[in-house]
Write a structure and sequence with these properties.
Chain lengths: 111, 158
């Protein structure tokens, strides 16, 4: 339980022309511990990974990602979408220990 | 009790033929690395449907120094016919299923991220369309140093 540390970087414009392609780039801080590594003491280091990343725009979930241990530590994601309405862009991230993070940015669309 | 073979008999008989058949295979295995098999993984994810090449584009470096963080990007090739989901599979990682992404308009079916690769393998991206079609793109990535560098290295390279 708890809150994940805020994104190291979240690149998203605040204003865009209707119909233009918006690129969303996100860098998160997370160990993404695979659960396969053996620590100094010889014991398996327990798995600790991000499991989901969901991006909503307006009232629509536009991207829903299931993440697995193959995603590198401190995950980076770049997604894109077409600006069609003024509204909030929300990122929801969760890890396998119940920690979550929600980030919202307003996107203003000008004609 | 079986008669013991002398060295002479072995050389004259099957031994020579055996050496000839075994040796080229061993050499072949050394020069062409095992790149993994995804048949079982596809069965789990897509049932009896088998993805065929085409429709998606996977961009990744063909030679990477470290498997710990490998930049990849995947996208649907035809903007008029976007896949609803993209998958990434790493056949020789301890877990071949690496990522699953579902998209809905106005999102574009494209994604870039960084992944881990435990060894040289055929990194495979699969796209799934709303009508059930499946397409794939595959790139053999040579990994100089895998992502699982510790004393158990051999254990996790499938």
């Amino acid at each position: 339980m708890g809150t994940l540390s805020p994104p190291v970087r979240l690149a998203l414009p605040t204003e865009a022309r209707a119909g233009s392609v918006i690129s969303l780039r996100l860098l998160l801080q997370h160990p993404m511990e695979t659960g396969y590594r053996i620590g100094e003491d010889g014991a398996r280091i327990p798995r600790h990974i991000l499991t989901t990343l969901r991006v909503s725009y307006g009232n629509r979930v536009i991207a829903d990602l299931t993440l697995r241990p193959a995603i590198a530590a401190n995950p980076y994601f770049a997604l894109s979408f077409i600006a069609d309405e003024t509204g909030p862009v929300t990122l929801e991230v969760a890890d396998d220990r119940g920690a979550t993070l929600t980030e919202t940015r307003m996107l203003t669309v000008v004609p | 009790m079986a008669e013991r073979l002398t060295r002479r008999q072995v050389v004259a008989g099957g031994g020579g033929a055996l050496t000839l058949t075994v040796l080229p295979r061993a050499l072949g295995a050394a020069s062409v690395p095992e790149t993994g098999d995804l048949r079982a993984v596809f069965k789990t994810h897509f049932g009896d449907q088998v993805p065929t090449p085409g429709g998606v584009r996977l961009d990744v470096s063909r030679l990477v120094e470290s498997g710990l963080s490998v930049a990849v990007s995947v996208r649907g090739e035809d903007p008029q016919d976007p896949p609803e989901a993209l998958y990434l599979f790493m056949p020789r990682n301890p877990e071949p299923w690496g990522l699953e992404a579902h998209f809905q308009a106005p999102a574009l079916p494209e994604l870039a991220t960084r992944i881990r690769l435990s060894a040289t393998q055929n990194l495979t991206a699969v796209g799934r369309w709303a009508d059930g079609r499946l397409g794939l793109d595959s790139v053999t990535v040579l990994v100089t140093r895998g992502a699982c560098i510790d004393e158990n290295y051999g254990q996790w390279v499938r």
